[in-house]
Amino acid sequence: MTAKMNRRDFGKALALGAASLTVPGCVSASGPIGRLKRRKPNLLFIWTDEQRADTMAAYGNTRIHTPNLNKLAGESAVFERAYVTQPVCTPNRSAVMTGLWPHTSGCIKNNIPLPSEIRCLPELLDDPDYRTVYMGKWHLGDEIFAQHGFEEWVSMEDGYSRYYRDGRDRSKRSDYHHFLIGHGYRPDSGSKFSRGFAARRPIEHCKPKFLEIKACEFLRRNRSEPFILYINFLEPHMPFFGPLDNEHDPDEVDLPANFSDPLEENEPLRYRVKREACREKYGKDEKSIRELIAKYWGLVTQVDRSVGAILKTLADLDLAEDTIVVYTSDHGDMMGAHNLVEKSVMYEEAAKVPWLMRIPQMKGWGRLIRNPVSQIDTVPTLLELMGAKRTYDLPGRSLVPLITEGKVFRDHVFIEWNPNSGAIKVKRGGTKLASKEELKRVENEHSRGVISPDGWKLCLSDVDKSQLFNLNEDPGETVNLFDSGRHKDIISRLTKKIRQWQESVQDKVEV
Length: 511
Description:
The chain has about 500 residues and is an alpha/beta fold. The chain is built from 15 helices and 17 strands. Strand 1 and strand 2 form a beta hairpin. Helix 8 packs parallel to helix 10. It is globular, with a radius of gyration of 22 Å. About 50% of the residues are buried.
């Protein structure tokens, strides 16, 4: 670990760009490939879909095969406790891209298009010098069409065409579709390729390799200009299988410590009903879950290999020292915790994600940041690191002071949940846990959560059970203390924090 750089020195470094850069137009001879130096930092933003935090060594998992992510973590600021704004795709994606809470942008559930007037990071930075491209899954509306400040668009998903806005051509297909056609494949689902079909291809024809190829091509084409490159892998998102299914031995997989948590009746009804459906779909015995986790790990390894190739290309082009690299995910996955699978719950496994930031001015750092942080701060942090010309009225704050000096400006982290597609799933034949009326009620649940610096987590629901956990003593969240009668002072204190936060972000939901 290197010595800390104070914020004043860090600011000077940002103003000058990467350390010791020459004036634009001078060719560097410091790397294997000469290039034009520039003062503005590049951004390589890599994210995945549904990746738990504990899927690399930096987060305690030394059994999963992620050598490239482990190396990146050793050179990065690693946020040990990074939380999403809402544990499901579209809402949190909107926050990561815009810096706005889901209830502010209106993207409160899956498949709501991000309004065109709401700006994403390239639009907020508003610097014409940058080449901008988005690659992979978008899930914020009009999936395969360039938008929101991105000049180039490499599309991958064709399953969202029914959600396109009026006027969009629903017969058009993604770049990945044409990639498969070019390799001699024919659609298996009408005129489209299903996710399952894609996941069953040889690794060189799967989605991670496709994105790797496209990303490396972009880097080679744009090595002489500042760039913003977002790459979003679908993996390790379901269907939870792929070409590396046998990469990890299920017998070497550790089950979650809370795998056998019974989910007592004081836990949310929506969660208990969802667990029934998960046990039916994925299995409830240890063997089934170990096999599922092993395949899930294989998908992470598949991403790791492509990330390694992209980072190697960045280095081979002598661009690494000029490029901010971010690695994170849009939410986690339960993967057997509480005998649940998938997301859409407020438990740690779904709400926490990996978050790495390799920053050129901090070359060589491998720093673990233990303070809980929120992805609502992603955009403000990147805007500062990239030298934005103006500030914006965003609810988040830059994490640069925390990274450089350990200064904490917000000591509580907040999470929200809004009625969402797929929020509740019922096993075949129905459930005896609730009537249809009760199911409809909890399906439309709102909840608001807070994580305190002293290790408490409170989740208030408007129509379902609320939760209180002592994360210091019960990190697996197996004992809901909300109705115990022993912690009224803590509930009162944290409820006040939630109310203050709601007022500050104009959140009118009553929980």
